[in-house]
Amino acid sequence: MRIILSVVAIAFAFIANGQTSQKVLDELSAKAKTYKTIEAEFTSHLVDKQSGIDSKQDGKVQVKGSKFVLKIDSFEIFNDGESHWVYDKSSNDCTIDYVEDLGEDAFNPAQLFTIWENDFKHEMVGEVDLKGRTAYQIKLFPIDPTDKAFHTIMLYVDKAKMEVSKIVIKGREGDETTYDLTKFVTNGEIKDSYFKFAESKYPGVRMSDNRI
Description:
The chain is mainly beta. The chain has one domain (20-209): Lipoprotein localisation LolA/LolB/LppX (outer membrane lipoprotein receptor (LolB), chain A, Clam). It is 13% helix and 47% strand. Strands 7-8-9-10-11-1-2-3-4-5-6-12 form a twelve-stranded mixed sheet, covered by helices on one side. The longest helix is centred in the first third of the chain and has 16 residues, at 2-17. The radius of gyration is 20 Å and the shape is globular.
């Protein structure tokens, strides 16, 4: 009985404070629409107990509308909204495709900052301490889980800044990927040309153009 009362009390506390998941996510979406550009640095941590993987990587992403540049591990991915380049430093190879040929499930980092807007249910878990700062913890569940490789996304939102600070993606096979944002800057100047792969800057690169 005490447990039930505690849960009810917590629920009413959130309602009284207006801190519902819908309100927080609506505020995040409204703020995201004001960003002309996004520059973020993050740490990615993949844990897959079945295969014994425990891997950490640092990455950087820059976004401008549908354009983005993602750099992580040995890979650099450039996307200018029309063409998509994947460059591998380890082999000095670069593959080019048309964005439209990548399919609807093609990953765009910008989606991470508004992923809750489409095809997700959500619920407020509560407030947690995240490296000395208070964050809202919100669970996201895909409405149609059958076509997803994950069952839950845990979203952490910095309460003071009202910005996403951490994302945890829980996979169906027991794997878990955590993205910790270590830097988040918006509305900086980024030229459109930056989102195109500049072959001249990569001596000896082997190009594979699938657009032909």
